[in-house]
């Protein structure tokens, strides 16, 4: 199947030289970017892009999709009280049906705001998987685990994780892939972490885990284990290139060196961190200087309230400029990199997505250049990061398939999802 993006006014390729092409056609065949150039033709569908900025789809490296049901439920609280008093009791009421529609609702928001790839960690992973598959978006579904030091729970979590992997039938598109998601070093025992790592290594899977989110977590870790969280994970042999750490706000110089040496990757979630007042900005500059892969994430709707990565890019840039007292840190280009090719590196997909280059998979979004946020056009990267919101996104394409065209979703029944979400949310 062919798709031709004709006369693209601008193409932010995000290739190695960050080349921006003007008045270019993009030919997509069977999900792959086949040609970039002028006067290309096709027998397939053509989209006129003369008023469009074309760029790689955004990549959200840390999420809990079904938490969209908890948006606005329990704001303005510290993380430990928020989890114990609001989120965990509410999650106890979830079932496969509510998780399915919460997931679809989140994916609806993501596709509308230009996200083409997500990395999720949650319960009822089977329901998350079937919901995600039905939308034809790209992503990772992690089986989320917590044992709180209870050995019986350790065994049952590992059993469930094995079952999740066994039942995970890869379809031929390979769009949705499995991961393992032990929640954090403070909610998972050493035994669970070690068994999860063993399972991940056996199946060549990535692990998605929260690490060093709050200052309290660091203090508690030193008290309980005599080590900071990253030192502890290194000590038990947990860190390698298949480890994706969400947050990593509090890192010592030694820990940054350990991350570098191990090849582990980081998902940065600036809005969630600022909203929960996690006690300091993630050391972005130091991580970038060390060439550690860093991607951008929103975290779940309960701790961000939005899944719009356009907004997240701006928050990211502002946070680091403010924290470092340096307007030159976290430039628009740096932040755009985090949300595209940086996220692809974190997820181990840099050969497939994250940029518009011949041979890569066609995960592409079209931005309306007549939107007020995109005018005037002195610098389109600046407009995307500092001015645009997700509502500028007109069309979203994943693997060459159109998931939204002219702001109309093609794979999600928006009306039904909204009705179901309102119904489930009223029962929380
Ligand atoms: Zn999270």
Heterogens: zinc ion
Radius of gyration: 21 Å
CATH topology of the largest domain: TIM Barrel
The count of β-strands is: 17
What's the number of domains?
2
Strand content: 15-25%
Question: Span from first to last CA?
Answer: 44 Å
| CATH class bucket of the largest domain | Alpha Beta
Q: Overview of this structure, please?
A:
This protein is α/β, with parallel strands linked by helices. The protein folds into 2 domains: 2-56 and 354-409, Urease, subunit C, domain 1; 58-346, TIM Barrel, CATH 3.20.20. The chain contains 15 helices and 17 strands. The protein has helices at 79-91, 96-112, 125-135, 151-167, 190-203, 215-225, 229-235, 253-262, 270-275, 284-289, 301-304, 309-324, 332-346, 380-387, 414-426, and strands at residues 2-12, 20-29, 32-37, 45-48, 52-56, 58-63, 115-122, 138-145, 176-182, 207-211, 243-247, 265-268, 294-296, 364-368, 393-398, 401-405, 408-409. The radius of gyration is 21 Å and the shape is globular.
Topology:
Blueprint: E1 2-12, E2 20-29, E3 32-37, E4 45-48, E5 52-56, E6 58-63, H1 79-91, H2 96-112, E7 115-122, H3 125-135, E8 138-145, H4 151-167, E9 176-182, H5 190-203, E10 207-211, H6 215-225, H7 229-235, E11 243-247, H8 253-262, E12 265-268, H9 270-275, H10 284-289, E13 294-296, H11 301-304, H12 309-324, H13 332-346, E14 364-368, H14 380-387, E15 393-398, E16 401-405, E17 408-409, H15 414-426
Parallel strand pairs: 1-4, 1-5, 6-7, 7-8, 8-9, 10-11, 11-12, 12-13
Antiparallel strand pairs: 1-2, 2-3, 5-14, 14-15, 15-16, 16-17
